[in-house]
Write a structure and sequence with these properties.
The protein is an alpha/beta fold and 238 residues long. 45% of the residues lie in helices and 18% in strands. It has nine helices and seven strands. Helix 7 (168-180) crosses helix 8. The termini are far apart. Residues 60-154 form the Methyltransferase type domain.
Length: 238
Amino acid sequence: MKSSPLKAIEKFDTSRANEYGRQSRIALAGYDACHDLTACMLAASLGNTSSARILAVGAGGTAQEIIAMAALEPSWHFTAIDPSEPMLEAAAQQLKANKLLERTNMHLGQVDDLPEDKLYDAGTLIGVLHHLEGDDAKRKLLQSIRTRLKPGAPLIVAGNQYAYASQPLLLDAWGQRWRQHGASPDEVKAKLGKILQGADPPHSEAAVQQLMHDSGFGDATRFFSSLFWGAWLTRKTI
């Protein structure tokens, strides 16, 4: 049975939101580097611009993509959208601590809830696609984002790829990383079981590229990789 978008949202409850920052930095080696490079890639893509409006989809939790971009580009403004209220609240707390709430519009809901007549200069979609089951749901989200971007606008897509069980060495290394950070053998086993059952990532980089092409984006440039994780920059086709 296919999981519904609601079930994907329900995974990110208050308990998960409260631990998201620490857990993410263990699960993704190079978490902060990926977000820092996201800011650099978008700045390089947009060139010299006095201001830019950035759509950050799935920014709940740490809001790290916004924090990184705001530090690099003080004139940029952001729209953060997330369907999970606890995750969006956690992001708001991080943005408040970094004095960025005044530069960020916060929206609880789906991308489809945003107006189509206010286009963004760029977008980010980090750590989201692998939580959506099936290519149709992934394409739908990418197409919704595309509708809200200016022609030729860059989009950062980052998340897990590969069918996890097809990469036993990477999966074992992922478990070893948790062990490095103090997880017991039983905790590592539980986390491995959870990742195998709790997500549906694209099964290859070629599959990521195909999803982007099918959704109205051009060829993507990969700029970051860490075990299962990859990060790419693509552009809305005109």
